[in-house]
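Dear colleagues,

As part of the handover before I leave the project, I'm documenting each prediction I ran so the next person doesn't have to rerun anything. This entry is a single chain, and its sequence is reproduced below.
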Amino acid sequence: MTMNLRFSGCLFLFSLLVAAPQAFGSDDGLSCAEKSVVASAVQTRDDIRAFVQCAYEYAIDMGPEEARRAFNEDERWKSGSIYVFISESTPQSDQAHHFVFPPEPEREGTSRGFLIDVFGNDYYKEQHRITSGFGEGWLYYSFTNFATGRDEPKATYIKSIDWNGTPAGIGAGIYQRDIPGSCNREEVNAAALASDPSNRKLQEFVRCAAMELESMGYFASISLSLDPRWRQDSIYVFGVDGNGNTLFSGDPYRWGGWTLGGADTELTSLTDRDDLSVADAFGETFLYYMARNPSTGMQQRKVVFVKRVVTYGLPILIGSGYYLDDAESTASSMSQ
């Protein structure tokens, strides 16, 4: 698609990304040196795979006793719902023992019997199949998220390991808020993003809004503009078409719902860069510019995440953002 629109507005486009915890991949010469990989930095499935590889190397180098202590006690290896576990790999899935399980260390050395999830998966049977037949791989299942107390979809990377002479699997998994099975209203909403603004929460928020637009089509514009889930204080969702026209917006100063034509756009800058085409080409992009904060009425620095969605054959860029001044104010109040 060719787009000739150049955005008008206030000049303030960052050329560098805002500093954030560095994510780590698995195929880029990653070093597993002390503290180079930590649970608190895990954000993606690629991170999980690298995390498990480093945990495996640590267990091999340090031995079972020290590895068990570290995986249970050291912050490097556990943070919220991210932790390392080790369990027996056996064809008798109801007899598989826990060797390391930080959320419930009292279970270590015991078997919990069959572990069948809501999808009908026999977890230990699948673990044995992967570790014995392939050495390592992904498991997709539903399991208790000990950070929320709910049963949620989990993607886990598992790797075969010898644990004191017993075949076992060492692994870690991630619960993502922006997949169809996890975009819960209670966790992904404007209030949550407003209370703790971050790039990761912003991505989850926009991706979940995109799923609603994909599933409901034009009718989603009403809820995305007016539902409190998608709109609170300075946080709101918007959608623009390929020409930059605002189709819907939760901004109380803008026309709600779908509109026809016009040059009004949510995305503004005075540079020669065609940000709309960039977002359309990459599918998902962060944008940085000055915009009017509806909560203050002032021009402020804004971080926006935009995702490309096709609804009824029409490409739409759906996005949202947070204001850096609000984020810095929130961080300052939390640290006091």
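Residues 45-62 form the longest helix (18 residues). The first strand starts at residue 78 and ends at 79.

All the best with the project,
I.
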